[in-house]
Design brief:
about 190 residues, about 20% strand, RNA-binding, Pept_tRNA_hydro_sf
Length: about 190
């Protein structure tokens, strides 16, 4: 098994472009600038080559809580198994500057993951979790919904960008099916 589809999660529209909830979009933007609108999937879709392999990229253009419509539709159309899907998303329970890779598990309250799990009929897909921190651990008096829909603070953005850069380094390993190596590399902070 290897990764054949990378789904970056976020919310569409310029008002959300720089918000923490769009960390998944930010990573996919680094992989290609050639995404095309697919009206049937309600998504921006493209294909790129990584390590000599074709990989589908998708940015759902629904709001976060309907991400499964695009991810599930693309996976069904191209016969991509759930374990060949990498969903890239913001993660409240990880500090800015860190990223974690895991397969399966609960949605942890993330509405995008809940909808993708429902669309795929399983939790058994890969997640690349980009740390954005939690308002409580960052000593902010902000509700979670408000927090994720705002820009990172000036000191947080470079940390999030660094986590995305380290995540991009392991994408070729995931496409090659080297999940253990990719996990160890990503989780070993230099």
């Amino acid at each position: 098994m290897s990764i054949r589809l990378i789904a970056g999660l976020g919310n569409p529209g310029p008002e959300y472009e720089q918000t923490r909830h769009n960390a998944g979009f930010w990573l996919v933007d680094q992989l290609t600038s050639d995404l095309q609108r697919d009206k049937n999937l309600n998504a921006l879709v493209g294909k790129t080559r990584i390590g000599g392999e074709d990989v589908w990229l998708v940015q759902p253009q629904t709001y976060m809580n309907r991400s499964g419509q695009s991810v599930g539709g693309l996976a069904r159309f191209y016969k991509i198994a759930p374990e060949e899907i990498l969903v890239v998303h913001d993660e409240l329970d990880i500090a800015p500057g860190l990223a974690k890779l895991k397969k399966g598990g609960s949605s942890g309250g993330h509405n995008g993951l809940k909808d993708i799990t429902a669309a795929l009929g399983t939790q058994d897909y890969w997640r690349l979790r980009i740390g954005i921190g939690h308002p409580r651990t960052l000593n902010l008096r902000q509700e979670v919904a408000d927090f994720v829909l705002h820009r990172p603070r000036k000191e947080e953005q470079p940390l999030i960008d660094e986590a995305i850069a380290r995540s991009l380094e392991i994408i070729p390993l995931l496409v090659a099916g080297k999940f253990d190596t990719a996990t160890m590399q990503l989780h070993t902070v230099k």
